[in-house]
Structures are given as structure tokens and as C-alpha cells.
Design a protein that fits this description.
By secondary structure, this protein is of the alpha/beta class. 26% of the residues lie in helices and 37% in strands. It is built from 4 helices and 6 strands. Strands 2-1-3-4-5-6 form a 6-stranded mixed beta sheet.
Length: 231
Amino acid sequence: PDLDQPKITIAVYSFPDRTGQRKPNSKFSQLSTAITQGPDVYLISALKKVSDGDWFTVVERSALPSLVKERQLVRSTREMYEGQQQASNVLKPLLFAGLIVEGGVVSYDSNMISGGEGARVIGIGSSKQYRTDQVTIAMRIIAVQTGEVLMTISATKTIASYSQGGDVFRFLDMSTKALEFESGNATNEPVNYAIRSTIEHAVLQMVYEGVNKKLWKMQGVNKIHLEKEKK
């Protein structure tokens, strides 16, 4: 539902990877991180998508130094060619936020559940394997005027991997001739998709909990039942 009040101005300074995890590998250590280093991009996108952008005005903070430098460049150039009075009328003051979103991706656990099954009869066999990983994010909303933490939200998403295969191995005669055939496929859910969907779920929980705490008003809704965690 739509927001039953003026739009909420909110700022995202950073939403980093706090897991410290490297990409899982059973044979050797990899230097690549297990998850993306830009979760804040997903968070900003999720905030902008709430009710087609009618809920939150998201102000730029992660690239604030670049923004300030560009504004200074515009102002100094205008002053040089058009005078100080004209330059002061070009740029509007920056918006300030009433709320700040802080937090990050706090956990990435691989091989939470793993297993499989297989069988072979007279040289013909098949096998199945599966594995689940888990990613958890934590988010908090802070009031700028008081510094009070108004709410905390956490969400968890399971990442599923599945593979299956079959093989045939058979001697054709008593000599060394043999027939061998293998086939298989694997499906892995993208980690970035899991992070994005978890962040979007956390933003949804933030909206609902804000309604219950009377931080903002939703049209036609007084209280919403909350699902604390998404599996």
C-alpha cells in the first residue's frame, strides 16, 4: 500500500561485507571473496522500489565526496563566468536525511547441509549430491536527530546446490576392451541473487515494523503481522 504521509528521506552510507569469508573450495584456498563487495547497491535499489519509489527518498552518501567536489566545481565555474549572485542560484541545498540505514552482510556459512545417494548395478550407476549454504544480513534504522536505534532487522536466505549424474562401465570381452560413459549436470543458485532477495526481504520487514512502531503510516493498515526470518 501507499505511504499515508510525506515521503521519508533516508540515507545509506555503507552496507559492507562483514563476513570475511573467501570463496569456498575443497582443494585449495581462493583469494576471491565469497560474496559481492557491493551489497549497498542492492539496498539502495530495494529502497527505491518500495511502492514504485513513493515511500523513500534515498540521498547519496557513499559517493558524497565526489558529489561535493562536483558541486564546488559547478559553483566556482559559475562564479567565474556569471558572477557570485548567479552561481548561488544554480545549486539547491543538499537534502538531509531523517533516518540512516546501517548494517551489512554478517554471515556466510557454506556446507550447512550436504549429502547424496548413489547406486551401481552390473557396471551401470547413478548418483545425486546436494549442498546448502546460508547468508545472513543485519540492518538497523537510526534516527539522525537523537542517534537512537529505532529498529533492528535480520534476514537469512538458504543457497541451494544440486548435482546428478550417471555412468556406465562394462568390459566388452575378456580382453582389455571396455566401454565407459558418463553424464551429469549441476545447478547452483547464484550467491548474489540470494543476497539481493535477503536485502529486499529485510526492507519489507523494515516497512512493516515501522508501521507497527508508528514511525510511518501506511494507507488503510494499522498493524501488520511480522515474519521475523526468511529461510
